[in-house]
Amino acid sequence: EVYFKNLSKQKQKEVMEKNGNNHKLRVCVATCNRADYSKLAPIMFGIKAEPQFFELDVVVLGSHLIDDYGNTYRMIEQDDFDIHTRLHTIVRGEDEAAMVESVGLALVKLPDVLNRLKPDIMIVHGDRFDALALATSAALMNIRILHIEGGEVSGTIDDSIRHAITKLAHYHVCCTRSAEQHLIAMCEDHDRILLAGCPSYDKLLSAKNKDYMSIIRMWLGEDVKTRDYIVALQHPVTTDIKHSIKMFELTLDALISFNKRTLVLFPNVDAGNKEMVRVMRKKGIEHHPNFRAVKHVPFDQFIQLVAHAGCMIGNSSCGVREVGAFGTPVINLGTRQTGRETGENVLHVRDADTQDKILHALQLQFGKQYPCSKIYGDGNAVPRILKFLKSIDLKEPLQKKFCFPPVKDNISQDIDHILETQSALAVDLGGTNLRVAIVSMKGEIVKKYTQLNPKTYEDRLELILKMCIEAASEAVNVNCRILGVGISTGGRVNPREGIVLHSTKLIQEWSSVDLRTPISDALHLPVWVDNDGNCAALAERKFGHGKGIENFVTLITGTGIGGGIVHQHELIHGSSFCAAELGHIVVSLDGPECLCGSQGCIEAYASGIALQREAKKLHDEDLLLVEGMSMKKEEVVSAAHLIQAAKLGNTKADSILRTAGTALGLGVVNILHTMNPSLVILSGVLASHYVNAVKDVINRQALSSVKTVDVVVSNLADPALLGAASLVLDYTTRRIY
After folding, report:
1. Where is the signal peptide (predicted)?
2. Annotated binding site for an N-acyl-D-mannosamine
3. Which of 13, 94, 725, 736 has its CA 20 to 30 A from that of 560?
């Protein structure tokens, strides 16, 4: 909806004129089975919603029209789509020959349909043998083909079929960055590839909060609770039918032994399906009290069932793709999905000789809850696909071109057709303000939101969620693809679990707080959390002076003193996540008291709070103000007044600043003697006032072997937000490449 509202009217006019006299694009969508309809339906709804641009023709074939598979064409009619043509193309049989004959039958029937429809473009999904017949017919009849989900890798004959359709297709819509790179490696034209995400995610990511208990009870019984049942969906593997049937038999044995309520869906129409149904009946699955065996579940209801299941088991692509959006545990069996990108919720059982291995996997996975994964989409695929369709110029030559080798830089972060920027949501949880920003891969803060930080835990978490949701929604408007959420906060943090263990006194009621789970659940995005000092170091490593430096230290000089240590290009957290508490390095045994309870810490000398404390003492003794300074009665004395007084010749203020600089310098010397970095970066509002003092102390106190260290002031305007963004951008970049 946001996309439609913001699409330029002038751009719409240009697209229509390009294709000649307001010509509507005639789109034929052909669907073969329940699985591909779940991906095509969101696109069909989008096309139908824009009749000024498109004419939609729907062709139904394959297992949609077979009673054994639930006559699933009815759900297309229930969605209020007019079915132009129904083609019975499945040849009954239990072997590979039946699949070949089905392809042949479809090739015989399709030319007449396409001659009557005369579509400008045909949309084909996936890797089924029916889809290969569709693509072959369209290509030979000079009809442009848009292929959905090309470039992916999985097991069985599906890989070969998918890549064959890729070679026939003129345009490609892929779901992941890896799939895009595979298409480029297959010599497809980069300008005709759209990285949009999976269309089904547009529905998935808005579905979880709907009423689901009635759906669960309808399919599994009145006494079933959420996270206490299993969804099983297993298909034959056409390249090794006997082994896949044996694996299915072991799966059913394990499920019977596991003794949990289970919804079993019948297998698809591939060769070997009849034998799998015989195995189900031999074991009495249809009459077993713990099992519900069904031919078909409507996609909207299936979403709710897997979203709240204790586990999903089988070899369906749905398990490794869509289910990750909910963090539901998945056990992927056999080789059918080998090569697919998966989230951490998927446990693979490649082979099994007995039921024990599968049973053990069930014991490991059942009832867990994993972070939500958005590897395959962010919920905005359909607007991108519609925009892509509108950009197609029917006057361009139909003959497709191949690129030998790929002509585009494979590390480009831009998608030509939608000009999106891969970005992160960065959250900075400060003592006073709560800030959220959209940060691009290049470190540009695209948009920033600031609110006062609430005092209570509940209000604070509610505000974080509200601001993040607002920013994620706005990201679509500014053409940003959000890869995840990074959070920078004070105190001790367990980054592995996303938990704030102990916070600073500036942020009350913020201990043992799980930040990752509620934010990940609300946004369906991966979430990373770390200490603000560590985030500052990450910001320098990615965007600042630390870029390309193997060993360096960042010191934050602000309200408090913090920092982060990068050793051999990696951030050091320590055994109890307490590394780099640089503000609490003791430089004097009888120094001033620190907020941590100790004495003589760097923070007790050089932090903004420490300087403010000393400024107040001078002010109370009428020793702060000098000529050229003035203060209003209601004005609060701050560190800035102390610095101003020192600049105007106040010797006592200057002495305090020199002592603070010396304390900081001694701390840096200790760091040099411990970590031996090649670079020290001073960050924060006080950095420029301390840099010369720190260099002087190093020259006087440090060992000669470390005196050559570079000490610089950070040039980053907002290291906290940039560091939070780096948590996301660094991880996702490594993961993709």
Report:
1. none
2. 492, 504, 532, 581, 584, 603
3. 725
Average pLDDT over residues 298-305: 89
Q: Which residues are catalytic?
A: 532
Kind and range of the H or E element at 683?
strand 679-683
Q: Please report, for the domain that includes residue 191, its CATH number.
A: 3.40.50.2000
Binding-site residues from annotation: 492, 504, 532, 581, 584, 594, 596, 601, 603
What is the CATH number for 512? 3.30.420.40
* CA atoms lying within 13 Å on the CB side of residue 658: 9
Q: In 418-443, which positions are buried (b, 16+ CB within 10 angstroms) versus exposed (e)?
A: bebbbbbbbbbbbeeebbbbbbbbeb
Rg of the chain over all Cα atoms, to the nearest angstrom: 31
Which tens digit of pLDDT belongs to each residue from 93-116? 767 888 899 999 999 999 999 999
Which residues, 6+ apart, have CB-to-CB distance to 443 below 8 Å?
A: 542, 543, 722, 725
**The token pair that represents 147 in the structure block:** 């292929």
In a domain, 4, yes or no: no
What CA–CA distance (Å, rounded) separates 68 from 172? Answer: 33
Same domain (yes/no): 515, 629: no
**583-637: pLDDT as tens digits:** 999 999 889 999 888 999 999 999 999 999 999 999 889 888 888 888 887 888 9
| Number of other CB atoms surrounding residue 550 within 10 Å | 13
SS3 content of the chain, % helix, strand, coil (to 5): 45, 20, 40
Coil, helix or strand for 89? coil
Distance of CA 553 to the CA centre of its chain: 30
CB 89 within 8 A of CB 313: no
- The number of folded domains in the chain is 4
